[in-house]
């Protein structure tokens, strides 16, 4: 009976674990350099979106993942607004092999953070009196695979800071 309990306890200690500890806005900015004149023009926006992720190991098995969405919207040739949000999360991640850990930090965690970042960005833009952006979903698994391929071709190795 004791051997069974020890085996079960040992399996629990080595089983992969993942839990979300906290989601928060790390940084937020909004600039409308041509207001109020931009509001008097015909609205024909051109949206440019840049996204980036970074991660770092905190103490022990805790990791911070930061998803940055940067949007520049031009109306004609003029910049209507620039908005950026850094949506972050703290995750407890234990007992994953290196490949699984890299995928979890590079794709799975950003997938969790994206809806929060998108909502924060929409709210920020509408508070600036512009129409909501309604950003399309992002396939972080595909982006992660592209980045892995790029790194393999250049001889880089994935790292967690």
Automatic annotation (TrEMBL):
Q: Which InterPro entries match?
A: SecB
From the UniProt record, which GO molecular function terms apply? unfolded protein binding
Q: According to its UniProt record, where is this protein mainly located? A: cytoplasm
One Gene Ontology cellular component term attached to this UniProt record is: cytoplasm
Q: Which parts of the chain span the membrane according to its record?
A: none
Which residue windows are coiled coil? none
> Which GO annotations describe the biological process of this protein?
protein folding; protein tetramerization; protein transport
Where in the cell does this protein reside?
Cytoplasm
This protein's UniProt keywords: Chaperone, Cytoplasm, Protein transport, Translocation, Transport
User: Does Protein transport show up as a keyword for this record?
Assistant: yes
HAMAP family with a match to the protein in the record: SecB (MF_00821)
Oligomeric and partner information: Homotetramer, a dimer of dimers. One homotetramer interacts with 1 SecA dimer.
| Family per record | Belongs to the SecB family.
Described function: One of the proteins required for the normal export of preproteins out of the cell cytoplasm. It is a molecular chaperone that binds to a subset of precursor proteins, maintaining them in a translocation-competent state. It also specifically binds to its receptor SecA.
For this entry, the protein name equals Protein-export protein SecB
Quote the gene name from the UniProt entry: secB
């Amino acid at each position: 009976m004791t051997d069974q309990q020890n085996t079960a306890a040992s399996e629990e200690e080595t089983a992969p674990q993942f839990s979300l500890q906290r989601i928060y806005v790390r940084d937020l900015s909004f600039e409308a350099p041509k207001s109020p004149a931009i509001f008097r023009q015909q609205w024909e926006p051109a949206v440019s979106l840049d996204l980036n992720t970074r991660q770092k190991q905190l103490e022990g098995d805790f990791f911070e993942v930061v998803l940055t969405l940067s949007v520049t919207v031009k109306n004609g040739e003029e910049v209507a607004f620039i908005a950026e949000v850094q949506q972050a999360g703290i995750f407890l991640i234990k007992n994953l092999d290196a490949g699984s850990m890299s995928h979890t930090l590079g794709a799975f965690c950003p997938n969790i953070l994206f809806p929060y970042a998108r909502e924060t960005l929409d709210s920020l833009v509408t508070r600036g009196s512009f129409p909501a952006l309604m950003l399309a979903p992002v396939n972080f698994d595909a982006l992660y695979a592209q980045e892995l391929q790029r790194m393999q071709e250049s001889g880089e190795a994935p790292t967690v800071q």
